[in-house]
Give the backbone structure.
Amino acid sequence: MTTRVALVGGTGKLGGIIRDVVDSESGFEIAAVLTSRSELSELDGVDLVIDASVPAVSIDIVRAAIERGVNVLVGTSGWSAERIALVRPLVDAAGTGAVFIPNFSLGSVLGSALAAAAAPFFPSIEIVEAHRETKVDSPSGTAVRTAELIAAARAEVGPVESPHVDQRARGQQVASVPIHSLRRPGVIARQETILSGPGESLALVHDTTEPALAYAPGIRLALAAARDASGVIVGLDSLIDIGIRTPGARTTAPVREDAVPGQVARATGA
């Protein structure tokens, strides 16, 4: 049976990558391609909604899918834990599934998982993320997700030490973690998590260099999960076994062998 997909934001950069992946996957068919300004009635009659739109309209798209009893895969940035909590009761009441993926890059997911694993051992943690100047939201959804995982991992030891955060130059706090966002030309996506303690620091850096190559394996995993999902699932770390347990993650599927090209992840100690 073919799953009929409505792709919202299909004319954007991420939407174009998702469309190519869906077109290449057996069992899926693009039934409608919408922009952020399209009428939500165009979602009628599909089996799965994929949202790659913009934060301002994403919640309306998710609600429209839930109201139609259709599962939804959300790749739009800006979905914090608090925002997801707003739609969780709607998903549960409708008996549908909603999969939220802050970043389709498997290397990025590994970087966030490593940061969460190390978080209880370092009192000071800050995140610096950079994206191209056209990205409309900040901090990025990936940085927010990383900060939330860090906070969950530190539940027993308390929030990170972040002095002088009353000053705007110290960044935006998410779950006690300061996040600094850069928006500039010449960069695709980069995140550095800096963990510091007495006499040492650990920097975890992830760079996306070729989005189409980096995101495709994660999109395939998310597609398969979203088609059959029940309830709310957050992050690729809920779908793969990466050998590091992130707080609240579910492991249900192995990583694909074609997951590596297009991204660079590294850890540096200083």
